[in-house]
Amino acid sequence: MDNINSDVWDLDHDDATTERMILDHTQQKLKREFTNTGYRAGLDASKTTTMQEGFDQGLSYSIPHGQTAGTVLGALVARRTVYRKLNIVCPPQVDALIMRLRALTHTQALDNNVTDNDPTTESFKTLVEEANAVLVSE
């Protein structure tokens, strides 16, 4: 039995060597599995933390802008409704401002690339100023 391939049952190796080989193989496999699991868990935790921070920051910016846009839009719609009920011709800028406010998107109100504390876009500020001017003038 000079050829190792002829020893089907591996009787030439002692039990201690075989057990060490099996333990070493098992240990390496467990190490890889735990490393992969730990890496994935770390990524998941990092993503969750980062996404939550981004959500919290975005929400803190979005709520006041949404309230402002909603308040101005509500006042303009109410003004238009009063004009219609009284059979008075509604100024065309009221309808135009209502349409612009209804078409407003998040990216038109907030600039994601701004690093200071006020990410409000100039177009949003202008739109709100125009709406307030119409509401005050009439």
Structure commentary:
With 138 residues, the protein is mainly α. It has one domain. The protein contains four helices and no strands. Helix 1 runs antiparallel to helix 2, helix 1 packs parallel to helix 4 and helix 2 packs antiparallel against helix 4. It is rod-shaped, with a radius of gyration of 34 Å. The mean pLDDT is 81.
Brief account:
The chain is built from four helices and no strands. With 138 residues, the chain is an all-alpha fold.
Topology:
Elements lengths: L14 H71 L6 H11 L3 H4 L12 H16 L1
Please count the helical segments.
4
The succession of helices and strands, N to C, reads: HHHH
Low-confidence stretches: none
Write down the overall geometry: rod-shaped
Q: Tell me the count of domains.
A: 1
Task: Calculate Rg over CA atoms.
Answer: 34 Å
